[in-house]
Amino acid sequence: MSNSTTTAIDLKMYINGEWKAAEGRPTIPVINPANGEVFAQLPQGTVADAKDAIAAARQAFDAGVWSDISAQERSEYLLKIADKIEEYAEELAVLETMDNGKAAGESSADVSDAAACFRYYAGLIKAPDGQTYHVSTDIQAMVVREPVGVCGLIVPWNFPLLMSVWKIAPALAAGNTIVFKPSEVTPVTPQKLIEIIEEVGVPAGVVNMVTGTGAEVGNAIVEHADVDLISFTGGTKTGKHIMKTAADTIKKVSLELGGKSPNIIFEDTDLDTVVEYGLGGIFYGTGQVCSAGSRILVQDTIYDQYVEAFVEGAKKIKVGPGNVEGVEMGPLVSQQHLEKVLGYIEIGKEEGATLAYGGNRIKTDGLENGYFVEPTVFTNVTPDMRIVQEEIFGPVVVIQKFSTEEEAIALANGTVYGLAAGVFTTDGARAMRVIRKMKAGITWINTFGPTFNEAPWGGYKQSGVGRNLGTFGLDEFQEVKQININLQ
Ligand code: NDP
């Protein structure tokens, strides 16, 4: 793969160890969101390509070329992949910024997290597992873990490399084979990852990548009877569709979906600190983060001060192309997504919220052709407004007011989502009380955003089912089997 900007990168699918184009079909242009220019071309795979990839994965699984090798051997492959990610770190980070638009520092952080994730699962798969238990002197009973089989992995565009790794690393560690579909919007670093997997010698058929649209190729993977599991990260609407489709063949399904995560600020906190965390919580990744702190709930006694300081902070955020030194917030990922986010800003105004800052597309200073939006702050919102209830997935925050702890908890839990939540207070007992009441899978006290390979990532309510990362993330890719041995 060449990363020259003058010649578009020619992407391919990877099926049964072969790189291939989509025969007889136009390619899908991949656009750099910072300037609107096409910089890669993606094969528009067909249902037949998806079926070929599934057949290759099935054959590889049933032949045991991956599932039957020792955990030690698989672990060594994973470590080699981690090494290669580090070797190509600079190139991967540059490509990630071209593909998704994110600031260079964010791309670099994603690349090093990706390597660390492979290392984590390389270690975990060698840890003791299984159980034995006493049922009677006549029977020796035990539980062993086995790979699930062929895993369909479908990932979104907001963390193209890292979301791919969060699924591929544990799926491979557990001994599964894979049919992988990156987002058609951001397929470039996922392809580079597959090239690395090929380079370290993972056998043909173990990892397959089909590209194209979710509606065609993604759906074909979800429908197919030879796929045993679907692990998906993306929008809640798509997640619902996937869950229904997968029901026909009773697949294991793991879904990491949207959020509208609350960040609760009590009056007994340091203003500068909580404003800083609030800004980072929503504007990191241009707000295109499932766990973004898109609702900030502030105690009424400090509300006005908080809003004033937050708006001052938002004004200082340097927006621009992610590859420009000092840029803190890049563009939105696509024209389509830009329109969605601007549409929500209009909805907020029509609903009667106060636009305290931002709200516009930025079309000055060389940013004319990119998908840049100002950091946007709404205040004076009510819980029923769509901008409070629905995931916007952009640099748009609502700042809500509460007076009591009980009210903060009720507001925080008052959406269909339950991905993440944060609370800031110097009262330790209150912090614990509030966090225990949060209907959310990922929570933070006096911080907002840190993520660890060791800890489960996923949501309550309509934010999903199942978990990525940690031991729980490995469990998703394993079956458990009881074995009972007659001792007589
Ligand atoms: P989607 O959920 O549609 O896309 C995520 C992945 O699913 C992509 O690879 C997509 O393919 C694929 N996909 C789409 N439809 C199907 C289908 N029927 N069967 C199987 N796979 C499918 O996200 P969008 O890009 O449409 O974004 C919509 C909204 O979702 C965002 O505005 C945001 O609110 C939310 N979102 C949440 C994310 C999260 O991290 N939780 C990540 C991304 C989006 P392709 O795009 O290639 O067609």
Layout of strands and helices, then pairs:
Layout: E1 9-10, E2 13-15, E3 18-20, E4 28-32, E5 37-42, H1 47-63, H2 71-87, H3 89-100, H4 104-124, E6 131-136, E7 139-147, E8 150-154, H5 160-174, E9 177-181, H6 188-199, E10 207-209, H7 214-223, E11 229-233, H8 236-247, E12 252-256, E13 262-265, H9 271-283, E14 295-299, H10 303-316, H11 335-351, E15 354-357, E16 376-379, H12 386-389, E17 396-402, H13 405-412, E18 420-424, H14 428-437, E19 442-445, E20 464-465, H15 470-475, E21 478-486
Parallel strand pairs: 1-5, 8-9, 8-11, 9-10, 11-12, 13-14, 13-18, 14-17, 16-17, 18-19
Antiparallel strand pairs: 2-3, 4-5, 6-7, 7-21, 12-20, 15-16
The protein binds NADPH dihydro-nicotinamide-adenine-dinucleotide phosphate (NDP).
Brief overview, please?
This protein has helices at residues 47-63, 71-87, 89-100, 104-124, 160-174, 188-199, 214-223, 236-247, 271-283, 303-316, 335-351, 386-389, 405-412, 428-437, 470-475, and strands at residues 9-10, 13-15, 18-20, 28-32, 37-42, 131-136, 139-147, 150-154, 177-181, 207-209, 229-233, 252-256, 262-265, 295-299, 354-357, 376-379, 396-402, 420-424, 442-445, 464-465, 478-486. α5 packs parallel to α6 (188-199).
Overview of this protein structure:
It is built from 15 helices and 21 strands. By secondary structure, the chain is an alpha/beta fold. It is globular, with a radius of gyration of 23 Å. Residues 154-158, 181, 183-185, 213-215, 218-219, 222, 233-235, 238, 241-242, 256-258, 290, 340, 391, 393 line the site of NADPH dihydro-nicotinamide-adenine-dinucleotide phosphate (NDP).
